[in-house]
Amino acid sequence: MVMNTLKKMFGSSSSGDEYVEIDVNAQQEKDVKVIVKPFILRQYDDINDILNSIREGYTIAVIDMKPLKTKDIIELKRAIAKIKKTVDAIEGQIAAFGDSTIIVTPKFAEIQRTPQSAVVKKPDYINE
């Protein structure tokens, strides 16, 4: 069937009005997956890879900023400001976890900022 379509598309036709539309975006949308990608921020220039991944829209970035934090706090603040600006532009979210980790998500994902405590529910057969 594909070969017939290609033959019609590239072969000569008597009417000249025959054509085939190929929806490239439909196939790309099916193949898209969300990627959780770890990054290590050793220097300010490391944000380029992070920003490119964030801009693609399907990456959840887990950024370890400890190496840059111990090396140069001013560069760290500058890097975080640049990342935050990009996250705001794509309507994503950014949150710090602990002293040295940042999570960045695209628009469709949400960061739960407060840890949920486990709710222990007693089974119905326990009468206390």
Features:
single chain; 128 residues; alpha+beta; four-stranded mixed beta sheet; globular
- Please write the string of helix (H) and strand (E) elements: HHEHEHHEE
The CATH topology annotation of the domain at 34-110 reads as Translation Initiation Factor IF3
Tell me the strand order in the biggest sheet. Answer: 1-2-4-3
> How many DSSP-defined strands?
4
Quick summary:
By secondary structure, this protein is of the alpha+beta class. The protein has helices at 2-10, 24-31, 47-56, 66-71, 73-89, and strands at residues 35-40, 59-64, 93-97, 101-105. It has a domain at 34-110: SepF-like protein (Translation Initiation Factor IF3), CATH 3.30.110.
Can you walk through the features of this model?
- By secondary structure, the protein is α+β, with helices and mostly antiparallel strands.
- It has a domain of 77 residues: 2-Layer Sandwich (Translation Initiation Factor IF3).
- The protein is 39% helix and 17% strand.
- It contains 5 helices and 4 strands, in the order H-H-E-H-E-H-H-E-E.
- Strands 1-2-4-3 form a 4-stranded mixed beta sheet, covered by helices on one side.
- Helix 3 runs parallel beside helix 5.
- It is globular and about 55 Å long.
- The chain starts with a helix and ends in a 23-residue tail after the last strand.
- The model has no long low-confidence stretch (mean pLDDT 79).
